[in-house]
């Protein structure tokens, strides 16, 4: 199942963020009672996005261009705070999130920043050859913003196919989808092959939970996750780029009634919760926290590895 903006409830305002950001420096959000869980989810999503290099770079450049000034000339309000104020003014956060609602909140955020949507877009085309009438079919293309997969499916596939990687399991869940043959008189349901021709700057994987999982089930699910994936192992990539690998840079997980962000910063994993930061260390340390605190990862942010390396290289040369 793909993450699609059509699933997001219609927003009252459909304004681009850049025009509002320049006016948001001195505006505070309206006085309203915000739901603590929803506010926590927003803060941790923004914290996660802030670890995606291309997002920060483009947000900064667009803001500088729109405001016609450098960020250093406007130190009174950090860019992170400007973005947060804008979101508070335009999102409805007065009610608790629905179950597995973090991915929908993320899509609501994307709807408010349409200029940066293309960094997350995956343009998919489903193709198949009917096994009954041998008709070659291509279904109309769709734009998604990542993959949604049931946490239980990860455990089921891993239990049945122990050699499967995280990529293999995502691929298997997609192949399991069937579509009707559109040739008149046939109507056979066929498995489809999903193709993409573009590589998004960032790739999103959202997990859906029942929220009654045992400690072992949570750990077994988390153990399937990977810190690096090859998107060409998930889709049939028909583009011309050889750089199809993505690295996990951050994720949002639920912990009780609040949300945390775990991000890879300064060559180690750290945990952001409320206004505190805890250094975790390596990936095994992350898995240990999953087990000990019964934490459910809900949305994972991967970034194109070569793009991230190039941006770090450019930043280093400027220094």
Automatic annotation (TrEMBL):
Keywords: Hydrolase, Ubl conjugation pathway
Domain Peptidase C19 ubiquitin carboxyl-terminal hydrolase residue range list: 39-280
Source domain of life: Eukaryota
GO MF entry, a single one: cysteine-type deubiquitinase activity
Spans annotated as Disordered: 1-30
Ranges of Acidic residues composition bias in the record: 13-30
Compositional bias ranges of the Basic and acidic residues kind: 1-12
A single BP term in Gene Ontology: protein deubiquitination
Protein name: Ubiquitin carboxyl-terminal hydrolase family protein
Organism field: Arabidopsis thaliana (Mouse-ear cress)
């Amino acid at each position: 199942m793909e993450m699609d903006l059509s699933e997001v409830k219609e927003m009252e305002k459909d304004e681009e963020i850049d025009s509002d950001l320049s006016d948001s420096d001195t505006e505070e959000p309206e006085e309203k009672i915000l739901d603590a869980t929803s506010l926590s989810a927003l803060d941790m999503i923004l914290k996660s996005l802030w670890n995606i290099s291309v997002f920060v770079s483009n947000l900064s450049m667009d803001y500088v261009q729109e405001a016609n000034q450098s960020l250093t000339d406007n130190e009174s309000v950090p860019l992170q705070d400007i973005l947060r104020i804008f979101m508070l003014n335009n999102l409805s956060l007065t009610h608790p999130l629905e179950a597995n609602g973090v991915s929908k909140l993320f899509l609501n955020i994307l709807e408010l920043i349409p200029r940066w949507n293309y960094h997350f877009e995956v343009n998919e085309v489903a193709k198949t050859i009917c096994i009954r009438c041998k008709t070659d079919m291509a279904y109309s293309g769709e734009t998604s913003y990542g993959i949604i997969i049931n946490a239980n499916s990860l455990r089921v596939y891993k239990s049945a196919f122990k050699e499967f990687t995280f990529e293999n399991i995502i691929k298997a869940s997609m192949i399991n989808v069937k579509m009707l043959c559109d040739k008149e008189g046939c109507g056979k349901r066929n498995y489809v092959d999903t193709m993409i021709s573009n590589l998004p700057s960032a790739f999103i994987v959202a997990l859906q939970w029942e929220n009654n999982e045992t400690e072992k089930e949570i750990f077994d699910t988390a153990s399937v996750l990977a810190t690096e994936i090859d998107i060409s192992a998930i889709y049939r990539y028909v583009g011309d780029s050889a750089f199809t690998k993505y690295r996990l840079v951050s994720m949002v997980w639920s912990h009780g009634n609040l949300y945390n962000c775990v991000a890879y910063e300064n060559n180690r994993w750290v945990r952001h919760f409320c206004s505190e930061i805890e250094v975790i260390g390596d990936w095994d340390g992350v898995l240990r926290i999953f087990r000990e605190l019964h934490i459910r990862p809900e949305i994972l942010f991967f970034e194109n590895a070569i793009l991230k390396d190039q941006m770090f290289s450019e930043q280093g040369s400027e220094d």
